[in-house]
Structure formats: C-alpha cells, structure tokens
Design brief:
Strand 1 and strand 2 form a beta hairpin. 15% of the residues lie in helices and 27% in strands. A 5-stranded mixed β-sheet has the order 6-1-2-7-8. A 3-stranded antiparallel β-sheet has the order 3-4-5. It is an alpha/beta fold.
Length: 131
C-alpha cells in the first residue's frame, strides 16, 4: 500500500528514524515500549531504504511503500536537494543496519523523543534493513 510522503518524516542520525502518520499498518505494528529510551527490535518487520522508494515490510500482507524522494528529511546538514537528504538518510540506515520506524496518529510538530517514546500511542521499533 502506498503511503503519502506528506505523512512521513525521515530523521537522520546514527540510528535513523522513519515517522509515519495515519499509516494503514499502524494497528499491525507492536505497541512501542522503550524502557530507558531503548527502542526494541520490531519482530517480523524489515525496511528496504532506497533513494526513490522506501519499503516497510511486515508479516503476511502488512507493508507500505513510501515515495521517499518526495518525503521530508530532517537532521544532518539540512542543505542541498531532497535527493541528497534522502541519500544521506539511506546511508545512515545502511550503516546502522536498519532504522527505527514509528507509527503515530499524526506527525509531531517538534521532535521531543522523551515525550514521544513513552506516549503509549506510538507503534513500531527497530527494523533491520534488507539488502
């Protein structure tokens, strides 16, 4: 299922994050429990981070495709073209061996991880990258 890139936010970092809003896979993802901020592995799920498309694949028929080149990317240098930001995010995901994928009701206005992780509404976890 295709997810509108306006409902995503790619966040660069040592462990990159993909935030999803109003995702059709929300209820299929496990409720996030991140004791001490440690995000657990999202069992049965994987991510394929690519410059043009990002695939989040789950068990059974669960999964989404994000037109990544059109999606917003924050963090890092924050300069250059959309493709350079997405390319850097993909490189972050490759180096980390995957990414944290969090599904929310809506995207947050500010990235406040201590408030977001224990919110009780976030679903997801760390998803290993497939080659």
């Amino acid at each position: 299922m295709l997810l509108n890139p306006e409902n995503t936010l790619f966040v660069r970092g040592a462990t990159p994050v993909l935030l999803l809003a109003d995702a059709p896979v929300h209820d299929a993802l496990p409720l996030l429990t991140a004791p001490d901020g440690a995000v657990p592995l999202c069992e049965g799920w994987s991510i394929v981070p690519r410059l043009t498309l990002c695939v989040v694949d789950g068990p059974g028929d669960h999964g989404i495709i994000v037109p990544a080149l059109a999606a917003p990317v924050v963090g890092g240098s924050d300069v250059g073209t959309a493709s350079s930001g997405m390319g850097e995010w993909c490189a972050d995901a490759e180096q980390a061996g995957g990414a944290v994928v969090l599904s929310l009701d809506r995207l947050p206005e500010t990235l406040d991880w201590p408030a977001l992780l224990p919110s009780g509404t976030a679903r997801g976890g760390f998803m290993p990258a497939l080659a």
